[in-house]
Amino acid sequence: MALTNEIVKQKLTEKFGDSVTNFEEPFGMLTFEAPKEMNLKVLQFLYDDETLGFRFLTDLTAVHYPDNPGRELAVVYHLHNLRENFRVRFKIFTSIENPDVFTATKLFAAANWMERETYDFYGVNFIGHPNLKRILNVDEMDYHPMRKEYPLEDRQRTDKDDEMFGRGEIFPNQA
Amino acid sequence: MARPVRYNLTGERDLKLVKEGPIGYAGEGFMATTLDQIIGLARKNSLWPLPFATSCCGIEFMATMAATYDLGRFGAERVGFSPRQCDMLLVMGTIAKKMAPVVKQVYLQMAEPRWVVAVGACASSGGVFDTYSVLQGIDQIIPVDVYVPGCPPRPEAILDGIMKVQNLVGKESLRRRNGEHYKALLNSYGIE
Questions:
Q1: What is the pLDDT of residue B13?
Q2: Which listed residue, A172, B33, B137, B145, has the most CB atoms within 10 A of its CB?
Q3: Under an 8 A CB cutoff, do A154 and B125 touch?
Q4: pLDDT value at residue A175
Q5: How many Cα atoms sit within 13 Å of B55 on the Cβ side?
Q6: What fold does the segment set B39-164 form as a domain?
Q7: Percentage of residues of chain B with pLDDT beyond 90
Q8: Which 134-163 residues of chain B touch chain A by CB within 8 A?
Q9: In the beta sheet, which residues pair with residue A61?
Q10: Each residue of A42-57: pLDDT tens digit?
Q11: Which residues of chain B have a CB within 8 Å of the CB of A117?
Q12: What pLDDT shows up at residue A9?
């Protein structure tokens, strides 16, 4: 029996009840959300269950929603069932003041570098990660550049005339 | 039938190997000039390029080295891939901030005298990559002699840049690299 979105949704609701919420199907791919404390329980269940068997972590990243107070950072897991060739997307939300999330490295070895990258660019603090340090950016960097708190351009530059590049008044609030 | 051999030089009897010799006093069978000019002449016609190619400008440099444009015509035939042998560093392409220490180390490994060409918009100024991860021009970490504009520059532009370097090399005083001015320049980049 082929895996469908309905089966996955039904299994999750049976196991976790109302904790797993916000079921969506953008472009046919099942997407759902859980409280951030439950991320490992849900991942473990998706991994262990015989029918589901999501044993491959395709991608792990984060999204910054600055207009979403208390839920600024979303951590997104893309999971793949290789036997059925079936994918789901799993999201957890956390506040930006306290971006602590349990690490998935015990479950997926692939999560190691992906979590380092997510930490590097978004500052998500993965609790229990064996080696949580910057992976792509220079070690001296003291901020997380993919957060939507910074202008895209390097503000240190003095040789470019802002007026000529049409950005003199774009960020008037930022020094 | 065998092709008749024809010499390109037909009619040009007084061909000289060096068309513009150094200024000096010449007579029948001898010439006297300054050591600076002789060494400058030798250096500028035997530059050893060290390509530091990270992106599309490097591809243009490959075309510059190849048969159509042929950098070998300018005495820079031998591309060395060891900084210790080379005297002209060509930085071609985007240099990420994480790559910056590598560029600097390569520069430090080169022996004096050494010249640097920033080829293309990215190496010269960061180019379109005006962002947190890209070095905004290699002149933030090492002194640059010649900038070649373009995105990427055509091989002619790279050749023009190398001819500009040759011009600098040929006219450089032998004392320049020992001078206070040069030391101050290197110190401003944190190089002893």
A1: 57
A2: B137
A3: no
A4: 46
A5: 17
A6: Rossmann fold (3.40.50)
A7: 51
A8: 134, 136-137
A9: A76
A10: 999 999 998 899 999 9
A11: none
A12: 92
At residue A149, the pLDDT reads: 82
- Paired sense of beta strands B30-32 and B25-27, if any: antiparallel
> What are the structural domain ranges in chain B?
39-164
**Helix-, strand-, coil-residue percentages of chain A, each rounded to 5:** 25, 25, 50
Answer whether 0.80 is exceeded by the pTM. Answer: no
Q: Verify whether the Cβ–Cβ distance B132 to A157 is below 8 Å.
A: no
Strands A30-34 and A125-127: unpaired
**ipTM, interface predicted TM-score of the complex:** 0.70
Of B98, B131, B137, the CB nearest to A138: B98
How far, in Å, CA of A77 to CA of A64, rounded? 15
Residue in B66, B130, B62 with CA at minimum distance from that of residue B94: B130
* Residue from the list A141, A145, A154 with its beta carbon closest to the beta carbon of B136: A154
| DSSP-assigned letters across all residues of B29-90 | TEEE--HHHHHHHHHHTS--EEEEE-SHHHHHHHHHHSTTT-GGGGT-----SSTTT-SEEE
Cis peptide before B155 (omega within 30 of 0): no
CA A54/CA B24 separation, integer angstroms: 83
* CB contacts, 8 Å: A157 with chain B: 126, 130, 136
Helix runs in chain A, H state only: 5-16, 39-48, 111-122
CB contact under 8 A, A154 and B98: no
Beta bridge partners of B118: B91, B147
What domains are defined for chain A?
Answer: 17-136+143-152 (3.30.460.80)
What are the residue ranges of helices labelled H in A21-110? 39-48
**Of B53 and A168, which is predicted with more confidence?**
B53
CA-based nearest distance B136→chain A, Å: 8
Cβ contact A137–B126 (<8 Å): no
